[in-house]
């Protein structure tokens, strides 16, 4: 499912930003008419007196919408043009103007979406206290009744308030917008409570006075947050952050839940009732019933967001934007992921159809020598964001329409005419309109109903969900060290990267989320360089030995193939993550030949047989087939091995499992043990640079293993068919994707250059070409 035939491809504007005609035909003053007269409040002291002169050119503008193929036009009414004093006397010429717009839209098969309030408060009401005066609840309801009486015979869709976060935060808390006040924080809570009650009463008035069935919505905005990966913990972090409330009271209105929970859920968020208790007005059950009048849809103005992830201790952490991160001419970051995740989280929480009531970008648009306006950055922006909308719809998120902001360049509030958001370029001297390249592009998108919105996907990092195995000798350090959700305090192994039938990891993120690694190996071999083999070649584990493991040995490939139904043998290596003081491992034996080996085994002379090797954190050992070995109590190890689960148990300390001894494999062990034991000296090649240290731990027939320590930022290039990475310590980022201790992932074939940054230690492994 993609864009339906009913999907509303729209554009949006607001009255003060485009209309002009500020002193014509009986219109009353609004707060912006007055605010723009205050010196220094607006860029270059611009005003909206003329703006785009839409008041006289609306037919030309609607004709352009028709040519563009627009299905819906979201515009606002200037309250003071209809009710010059805010209440009482109705200005028929103002009503006629909006009737003319509505009729012209219908004549051109464009659906009107009317916003009652896009910040154009009548100045006469402001003088009476405006939004701080509780009487505004009735004033706004009276205005809504007039709107319904005059326009609802032809208009079906109404929106009460646009971005209350902004008109309160910028107009009354920070003073950057009209009316330019910086009132007490406590009073801003009163204003919001008044505005939301006014919204509720307006909903009642619209329905009571409507001349036919109508649909009503509400268009807030707020900070969007999106996960660094689509692992569940990062998704939960983004969702939680999106609906959280800020501690910074100087910008406290910039949030979602305080403005949306009351309207859609019937209650202010509990977090805010506690956090903001000293600022709150009296809030009654009757207030909440009024505020939460049933709505037909919700709107959300979405422009940008921030990336977050779940940290080492499950705290929410922000991903810093890299140097050169793309921004609009307003300085807003370009974050197309936010529209998908924002829509998803909003619809999940509020369970109404969603319109993206604003989305767009400001560019430094100029007319070129060819007379056209080329704005490739805007096209790229819209393409990326609309791809997010398309993906959301395909994932079952109910998005009913999209209104691009804005149809044409306009008066951008305190920025004056310095910022250009439009699809259509406006020459503010001649008022001539020129279609930008983005207008032609959007025209094509609408004509093709979004079928041309496609993206060439980049190679994805494949994060894996580990498999946990309980063992008689296991413990609980996998939970304590890595915050893994282990099944019990007898968890001995974390199969971190495995496609083995006994423990097949699933992909945690992206296109292949939920698929097993073995399935990717079978069906998407290109991810691994199309290398040969009937199984994924490697298996990476973390082993927590609370008690001693059995003394054991592994066969080589030829023995395993002959005696274990075609299995691979097992060559493996160990990186010591942690161990007790004065710890040792069992690696090798002391028998001079096979005959002596058999005798020691027959006599159970284990202490005489085994060879103990002292160890410390950071040591590394290669365990070849035929090597007697055992991990000892208190040791934590990262193991990289062939993809095999063949182990021959030689001695198990006479332990019982479920009341019986575990099986031993004496004959097979004697077959495969190499005697005498010959120790191999591993040469660890170390490269040290300013921001990283790389140790090449081992390269053998089956794999290579390296350790990299990052303290800063460094670019690397992978030339192997694929690269497995396990984060041992710290947290940082790979290509701006957060990674932390305990993460395991694969860089697929062709991933190319990658950047590691932060303070992290990583073991990487792979196979040669």
TrEMBL record:
<protein>
    <recommendedName>
        <fullName>Beta-glucosidase</fullName>
        <ecNumber>3.2.1.21</ecNumber>
    </recommendedName>
</protein>
<feature type="binding site">
    <location>
        <position position="17"/>
    </location>
    <ligand>
        <name>substrate</name>
    </ligand>
</feature>
<dbReference type="InterPro" id="IPR001360">
    <property type="entry name" value="Glyco_hydro_1"/>
</dbReference>
<feature type="domain" description="Phosphomannose isomerase type I catalytic">
    <location>
        <begin position="463"/>
        <end position="569"/>
    </location>
</feature>
<dbReference type="InterPro" id="IPR049071">
    <property type="entry name" value="MPI_cupin_dom"/>
</dbReference>
<keyword id="KW-0479">Metal-binding</keyword>
<keyword id="KW-0136">Cellulose degradation</keyword>
<keyword id="KW-0119">Carbohydrate metabolism</keyword>
<keyword id="KW-0378">Hydrolase</keyword>
<dbReference type="Pfam" id="PF21621">
    <property type="entry name" value="MPI_cupin_dom"/>
</dbReference>
<dbReference type="InterPro" id="IPR017853">
    <property type="entry name" value="GH"/>
</dbReference>
<dbReference type="InterPro" id="IPR046457">
    <property type="entry name" value="PMI_typeI_cat"/>
</dbReference>
<keyword id="KW-0624">Polysaccharide degradation</keyword>
<dbReference type="InterPro" id="IPR014710">
    <property type="entry name" value="RmlC-like_jellyroll"/>
</dbReference>
<dbReference type="InterPro" id="IPR011051">
    <property type="entry name" value="RmlC_Cupin_sf"/>
</dbReference>
<keyword id="KW-0326">Glycosidase</keyword>
<dbReference type="GO" id="GO:0004476">
    <property type="term" value="F:mannose-6-phosphate isomerase activity"/>
</dbReference>
<dbReference type="Pfam" id="PF00232">
    <property type="entry name" value="Glyco_hydro_1"/>
</dbReference>
<dbReference type="Pfam" id="PF20511">
    <property type="entry name" value="PMI_typeI_cat"/>
</dbReference>
<keyword id="KW-0413">Isomerase</keyword>
<comment type="similarity">
    <text>Belongs to the mannose-6-phosphate isomerase type 1 family.</text>
</comment>
<keyword id="KW-0862">Zinc</keyword>
<feature type="active site" description="Nucleophile">
    <location>
        <position position="358"/>
    </location>
</feature>
<feature type="binding site">
    <location>
        <begin position="412"/>
        <end position="413"/>
    </location>
    <ligand>
        <name>substrate</name>
    </ligand>
</feature>
<dbReference type="InterPro" id="IPR017736">
    <property type="entry name" value="Glyco_hydro_1_beta-glucosidase"/>
</dbReference>
<dbReference type="GO" id="GO:0005829">
    <property type="term" value="C:cytosol"/>
</dbReference>
<feature type="binding site">
    <location>
        <position position="303"/>
    </location>
    <ligand>
        <name>substrate</name>
    </ligand>
</feature>
<dbReference type="GO" id="GO:0008270">
    <property type="term" value="F:zinc ion binding"/>
</dbReference>
<feature type="active site" description="Proton donor">
    <location>
        <position position="163"/>
    </location>
</feature>
<feature type="binding site">
    <location>
        <position position="405"/>
    </location>
    <ligand>
        <name>substrate</name>
    </ligand>
</feature>
<feature type="domain" description="Mannose-6-phosphate isomerase cupin">
    <location>
        <begin position="694"/>
        <end position="765"/>
    </location>
</feature>
<feature type="binding site">
    <location>
        <position position="118"/>
    </location>
    <ligand>
        <name>substrate</name>
    </ligand>
</feature>
<comment type="similarity">
    <text>Belongs to the glycosyl hydrolase 1 family.</text>
</comment>
<dbReference type="InterPro" id="IPR033132">
    <property type="entry name" value="GH_1_N_CS"/>
</dbReference>
<dbReference type="GO" id="GO:0008422">
    <property type="term" value="F:beta-glucosidase activity"/>
</dbReference>
<dbReference type="InterPro" id="IPR001250">
    <property type="entry name" value="Man6P_Isoase-1"/>
</dbReference>
<feature type="binding site">
    <location>
        <position position="162"/>
    </location>
    <ligand>
        <name>substrate</name>
    </ligand>
</feature>
<dbReference type="GO" id="GO:0030245">
    <property type="term" value="P:cellulose catabolic process"/>
</dbReference>
């Amino acid at each position: 499912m993609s864009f339906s035939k009913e999907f509303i491809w729209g554009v949006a504007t607001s009255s003060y930003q485009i209309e002009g005609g500020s002193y014509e035909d009986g219109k009353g003053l609004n707060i912006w008419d007055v605010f723009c007269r205050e010196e220094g409040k607006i860029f270059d002291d611009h005003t909206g007196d003329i703006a785009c002169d839409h008041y006289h050119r609306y037919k030309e503008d609607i004709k352009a919408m028709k040519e563009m193929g627009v299905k819906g036009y979201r515009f606002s009414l200037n309250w003071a043009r209809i009710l010059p004093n805010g209440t009482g006397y109705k200005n028929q010429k103002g009503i006629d103007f909006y009737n003319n717009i509505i009729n012209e839209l219908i004549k051109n098969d464009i659906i009107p979406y009317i916003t009652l309030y896009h910040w154009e408060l009548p100045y006469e009401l402001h003088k009476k206290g405006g939004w701080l005066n509780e009487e505004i609840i009735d004033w706004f309801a009276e205005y809504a009744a007039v709107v319904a009486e005059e326009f609802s015979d032809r208009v079906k869709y109404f929106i009460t308030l646009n971005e209350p976060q902004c008109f309160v935060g910028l107009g009354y808390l920070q003073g950057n917008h009209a009316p330019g006040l910086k009132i007490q924080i406590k009073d801003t809570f009163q204003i919001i409570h008044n505005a939301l009650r006014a919204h509720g009463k307006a909903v009642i008035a619209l329905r009571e006075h409507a001349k036919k069935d109508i649909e009503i919505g509400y268009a807030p905005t707020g900070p969007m947050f999106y996960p660094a990966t689509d692992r569940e913990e990062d998704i939960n972090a983004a969702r939680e952050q999106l609906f959280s409330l800020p501690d910074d009271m100087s910008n406290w209105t910039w949030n979602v839940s305080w403005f949306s929970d009351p309207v859609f859920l019937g209650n202010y968020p509990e977090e805010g009732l506690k956090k903001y208790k000293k600022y709150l007005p009296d809030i009654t059950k009757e207030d909440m019933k009024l505020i939460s009048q049933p709505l037909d849809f919700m709107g959300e103005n979405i422009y940008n967001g921030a990336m977050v992830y779940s940290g080492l201790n499950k705290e929410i952490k922000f991903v810093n934007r890299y140097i050169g991160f793309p921004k609009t001419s307003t300085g807003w970051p370009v974050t197309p992921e936010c529209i998908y995740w924002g829509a998803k989280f909003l619809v999940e929480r509020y369970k109404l159809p969603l319109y993206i009531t604003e989305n767009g970008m400001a560019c430094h648009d100029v007319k070129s020598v060819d007379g056209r306006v080329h704005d490739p950055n805007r096209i790229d922006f819209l393409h990326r964001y609309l791809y997010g909308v398309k993906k959301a719809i395909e994932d079952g998120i109910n998005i009913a329409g999209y209104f691009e902001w804005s149809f044409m360049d306009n008066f951008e509030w305190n920025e004056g005419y310095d910022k250009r958001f439009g699809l259509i370029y406006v020459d503010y001297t001649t008022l001539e309109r020129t279609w930008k390249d983005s207008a032609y592009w959007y025209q094509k998108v609408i004509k093709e109903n979004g079928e041309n919105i496609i993206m060439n996907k980049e190679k994805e990092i494949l994060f894996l969900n580990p498999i946990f195995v309980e063992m008689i000798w296991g413990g609980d350090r996998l939970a304590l060290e890595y915050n893994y959700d282990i099944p019990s305090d007898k968890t001995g192994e974390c199969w971190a990267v495995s496609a083995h039938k006994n423990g097949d990891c699933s992909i945690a993120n992206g296109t292949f989320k939920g698929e097993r690694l073995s399935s990717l190996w079978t069906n998407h071999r290109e991810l691994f360089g199309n290398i040969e083999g009937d199984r994924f070649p490697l298996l990476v584990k973390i082993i927590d030995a609370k008690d001693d493991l059995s003394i054991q040995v592994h066969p080589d490939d030829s023995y395993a193939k002959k005696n274990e139904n075609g299995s691979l043998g097992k060559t493996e290596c160990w990186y010591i993550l942690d161990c007790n003081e004065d710890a040792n491992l069992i690696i090798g034996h002391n028998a001079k030949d096979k005959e002596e080996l058999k005798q020691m085994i027959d006599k159970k002379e284990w202490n005489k047989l085994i060879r103990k090797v002292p160890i410390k954190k950071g040591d590394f050992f290669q365990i070849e087939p035929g090597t007697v070995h055992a991990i000892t109590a208190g040791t934590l190890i990262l193991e990289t091995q062939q993809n095999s689960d063949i182990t021959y148990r030689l001695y198990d300390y006479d332990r019982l499992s479920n009341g019986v001894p575990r099986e031993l494999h004496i004959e097979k062990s004697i077959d495969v043990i190499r005697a005498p034991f010959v120790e191999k000296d591993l040469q660890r090649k170390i490269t040290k640079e300013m921001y990283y240290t790389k140790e090449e731990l081992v390269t053998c027939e089956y794999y290579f293993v390296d350790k990299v320590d990052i303290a800063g930022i460094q670019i690397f290039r992978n030339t192997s068919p694929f690269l497995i990475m396990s984060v041992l310590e710290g947290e940082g980022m790979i290509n701006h994707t957060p990674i932390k201790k305990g993460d395991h992932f694969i860089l697929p074939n062709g991933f190319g250059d990658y950047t590691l940054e932060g303070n992290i230690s990583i073991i990487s492994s792979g196979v040669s070409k």
